Amino acid sequence: MEFFLETLIGGLLAGTMYSLVAIGFVLIYKASGVFNFAQGSLLLFSTLTFVSLHEAGLPFAAALLVTIVILAGVAVLIERLLLRPLANRSPMALFIMTLGLSFIVEGVAQGVMGAQVHALDLGIDDVPIYLGNIMISQFDLAAAATALVLVGILAVLFNKTRIGLSLRAVADDTRAALSLGINLNRIWQIVWAVAGISGLVAGMLWGARQGVQFALSLVVLKALPVLIIGGFTSIGGAIAGGLIVGAAETLAETYLGPLVGGGLTSWFAYVLAIAFLYIRPAGLFGERAIARV
Amino acid sequence: MTATDPQDRILEVREISLSFKGVNAISALSFAVRRGEICALIGPNGAGKSSLLNILNGVYTPDRGEIVFNNRHFRTIDPLEVARRGIGRTFQNNALFHKMTVLENVLTGLARHASSGFLQQAWRLPRARAEEAAHRERAEEILEFLELQSCRDAVVGSLAYGLQKRVELGRALVAAPALLLLDEPMAGMNIEEKAEMSEFVATINRDRGTTVILIEHDIGVVMSLSRHVVVLDYGRKIADGTPAEVQSNPEVIAAYLGAVH
Amino acid sequence: MSATNTLPATQAVVLTGTGLPWRLPLLLAVLFVVIPSLAGEYWLGVILVPWLVLSLAGLGLNLLTGYAGQISLGSGGLMAVGAFGTFLLMLHVPGLPLPAALLPAGLITAAVGFICGIPSDRIKGFYLMVSSLAAQFFLEWLFLRFPWFYNYGGGATISLPSLTILGIDFGSARGRYYLVLTIVVALTWIAANLLRGHVGRNWTAIRDMDTAAAVVGIPVNRYKRLAFAVSAFYLGIAGALWAFAYLGSASVQSFNITRSFQILFIIIIGGMGSLGGSFIGAAFISLLPLGLDTLSQSLFAGHVDAGLLQNIEKVIFGVLIAVFVIKEPDGIARLAALFRARAAIWPLRL
Hints:
heterotrimer; A: mainly alpha; 12 helices; 2 strands; 2% strand; C: two-stranded antiparallel ribbon; two-stranded antiparallel ribbon; 4 strands; globular; disordered N terminus
């Protein structure tokens, strides 16, 4: 029983890492209706930038600040060059554009900053702590705490600030928001910047765990099952989805893995997502779309 | 089949009710359509007319009631099965295959009549070639009838709205349906185009014996084309009879107050 | 006749059907006779063979995604099924010539593809991606984790002892070129036949508006699954050819998610919904790295890091995709069609 709990908790905590990545997707999807495939490469880019700046001598906080400014700049570029020309196009067209964007960002990131693995030390000791007889990774706890703080900040941003109000208006009904005089372009720039920052946070945690390298951008693929289970339009859903995927994956690997030689984590989440789509096509917290003919 | 039904009703709508998220789209609707007639379905926007056609088509499932078509009853039905039973349909918003040509769109109307198998198609065996040629001939016939020959190779998405509606009519017509459901076939057309379209509908009804249910807002068109008019308002039937009867019905006049075409 | 405010039919450019160039006999003569007599080993073995195989893979994916409108990121995995299937068949059935093994391998892949297509009944559009991702990652895991698939070979690789068919050795570059060319031409002809008739039309109808397709009388679910199966068949054969007629030996790594993306890019750039486009896209994907390499060699005399070149390639691909999506979503094929149409009436426009 204790082993089960330990595995479960480990899985849930690992899941928060997925949630962190998924939050970036939800932000962009809510505001511009795009599944941003480039989120993974942006994650890589932002983390690489931070690490490179830090390694070049900039202190932690300064490097972070500069990276955030760069991210804001990138968001503006993306909005101007890619989002605006595709304003009324189909979701598929937008998605393919993000595919292209992911390649551009990856190429630039690795071209400029190199393809070696960078170590990232966040100052968190990976010494496990014990809750009774159950072992919990300190790092995972830190990640979960970070996720909570991020969600908290986002919640305040969305609910208590004017910008947040505009963001919610745009997410709810773009045309109505436009007619109210909300500057759609500015909103998109802000959302992409915020998504980039949340990606940076996720990237830093992932990077600390497995090194900052190319594989980081593949994390985006795992976000898809998380979003399908939790819904594309809710941050709470992203959290729930991440937790479920993390727990299910870990449990499956631990209990079913030995039967088939391990490695289930590479595909289990996707099969889980398919099962969910059969039962609840819009995810746990998403909205059901009714097709009107 | 017709011996038991002196009125020869091709379609009966019986106590149909439909609601979306608590809003009643249609309430206890009942009426019948005789074989070979043109029946117009009119009413203010939102009265539930398109929803009714969607039910007849199998796209929506009613909460209550049933449909009887050619003496076969159904409530839930697959759109594919509806097509098989002989009901054709055009849509308010032009549900055409916008990246395909006019000819190809009309050809898709014959999709369910294609009997040559996959391998026969793959290897271009004579049977497949013959069937394809026969289908193309039929499609060309329809294009000829609807005067669409000059744009047969144009991609449908690039055509004017009025022409698109005609293509949709062709697609519905090519499979020789017994009942044709037309959802605002003349929307967005000028007087000339409306006259042409009315002429086509009348000819289809007269020469091919196709029964037509027509949703239409232009009262002039309705009065001249149809002999049977059903009026809906807020999902309920408020009148059912000949154009003249309906025109002088006080409830109808009240419903349309202000909505003069 | 009411006036139209659009181009008359002769000028409206149509990107339908197959997008294959007309003068077919001429093209075949060039491919079968002219090229092999002029091209050397390098061109045949390193450029043309992979181009043909990638075109075939692109063609397969195009049937599913470009024509039937079902997105898939599982192309790599399906190619692996074809490769491993062919390997195992030839291993366990002694004396089986390669072409005879390709057919059943293709059918096995078609069956796998069919299974991948089952969720498309319930899951539509964009969400369907997760189903192909599940298949892709599952297959990647399967062909690595269970050594039976690669006959317990070292490095988890599969290869064929020789490419001898009916006593003739097709192992040379020229031989492999003919082998691959014949198969690709035959399968392209079949695909063109399918697309010309009601199968192709049903697929594009489903892509354009599946609710209307159902209303018109098309059995949507059946045709979706058919698209998955046929597409998988093509991908399986392409996978086998990739492993044995091009690489020589392959492991599941040659068929990973990167490969799936590569095939998707081929059809995006070449033109979704255009058979000819698959060939154009494949040419792009194969030739661009080569072109860049040559350019850097001549301009910078080899001082440019190979890794940097790869990243430049990535950026170029990304920019191309973005530009195409914005300007010309139907890819190069449509640009080519537009060009041909303009060229056809050019003398008149003087």
